[in-house]
Amino acid sequence: MWKFLVKQQKIEVLEREVIADHQISFVNLKFVFDGDWKKFHKVVQFSQCDETYSIVLGFDGTSCHLPAELHVGVVKMSVFGYDAESDTTVRATTVPVTLNIRESGFVGDDDTPIPPTPDLYTQLLQKIADIQAGVDGKDGLSAYEIAKENGFVGTVAEWLESLKGADGLPGKDGIDGKNGMDGKDGKDGRDGVDGITPDMSDYSPTSAVELMIQKITNPLLLKSHEHENQSVLDEITASYTLEEQRKLAEIQPSDYATKKVLADEALAIREAMIPLTRELHSHENMAVLDMLTAEQLTLLDGLQQFEDSTKYDIQTIRESVEPVISQAHWHHNLTLLNSLTSAKVAKWDKISDVKTELQQFQDSTQYDQQNQNDAILNLENRITILESKITSENNAVTLFSASSGVFEQYDNSLVFMVNNGTYPFMRFVEQYHDFCSENTDFSLNYSSSVFNWGVTIQSAFCNLVKITPNSKVLLEYLAGANSNSELCFVSPDGRSENTPIADFIFEKIKNNDCRKISFEWLYSVNYITTLISCSGIPAGEYYLAWTGTSDNTHPLIKKIQVLN
Fold this sequence. Notes:
The protein is built from 15 helices and 21 strands. By secondary structure, it is α+β, with helices and mostly antiparallel strands. A hairpin with a 2-residue loop joins β12 and β13. It starts with a strand and ends with a strand. Strands 3, 5, 6, 8, 9 and 10 form a six-stranded mixed β-sheet that branches. Strands 13-12-15-20-17-18 form a six-stranded antiparallel β-sheet. Strands 11, 14, 16, 19 and 21 form a five-stranded antiparallel β-sheet that branches.
């Protein structure tokens, strides 16, 4: 598993492993985001050659698998995120880190399909679908249940009865109004033209229903048409109140805000007309009409609307495509396009493949060169150490050397300070058990598995050590990342007999009243040994102190010596 810390615009590697190609959903990548990234909707991007693969983490996601499409070579990985709640566009990005994929020993028939990584749009749609498919909440309490929780005792009927208020007092009679003046008679209107009774055998079911809608919504038609179904019409009209009849008479299609409102009103009236249509039709398809229901009529209307909408969409697409087709090969580079052949395209593809292979070779060479440089540096350090041991073995002062007897050997000489608390070696290990244990062969473990993330631990040797310009400090350790650090040399001058040595050392370091030498923790898989020159320190006796931090560096110290 690979583990990363995303901090501001930088990705730091916390844990790593060798990656082989031909994996499918096997290599797990876990991300730890600092506080600034918590509000972002996050996406991880992988780039190799001309291909880019994106994996959505969302707001709370912290892990994903390495895309299966990635092959042997260098891969660039970065993270970006968006603040969806911000009033302005906020996009966070990181500097990419490099992952190196090695060739695996897998030999297959190439028939096993590699599942493609969904594109970013598809993943976002799936996230939205997952959110919309949430679990329904619990039903709330009824008003009666709430009343019972607040002390009411009785049945539902008794509770409903308790809601009624007391009867009010009778009101006083009003004063009689004055008689109005008699109005003048209006002029007689002109006689209307006699209407024609329609032949109902010529109407489809829909036409018959629409005729009945007109008869109901227009009282004048009811007076001008009299036939065998007049009694039925009178019965339907009478079922409406006077107010409803007035509203029906005023209905006009233009009064509706949308077609949907008109359709809903027509459907309601149509359902009321179904019994009437059975009496209005007596022609040869009467049996078919009787089988039609309101739901079937609605479905037929919906199918007709869908057909009309589809025809409109097809016509719109056809009109937009025709100009493109007519102009597809009439531009200035028509001659060049016509000269393209499959052989030329194949040649370009081959050139592109060669460029890709050259880039992969260059990236692989750089990676191997870095490994060789690291190996040469380690070899030089080991040669220097051997030379120093040969010439100065008897003059070495050991501040710490990992072994099963470290607690008895260094309890009185090693002190530590964390979170402003000072501890001797044994008490410190009692507080932080895995700081020095059999699990790490009794090395000093400054890891986040022992402390919280990013904790700084000051460490010091309480015995005075003689330092000359020729002295060197030997460090044997593991480190999870390259990181700058420093050694502190505290002079004993000014210390009173009543001041504990640990307090004196850490107070001097806090006030920057000491000599310092900068050095760098080097990333390493195996234990390495480095020598730090003390040529910049004036000759004399000093207390030595160093710092370990439980971040990406998290050193694991096996030995510290001063060689004179």
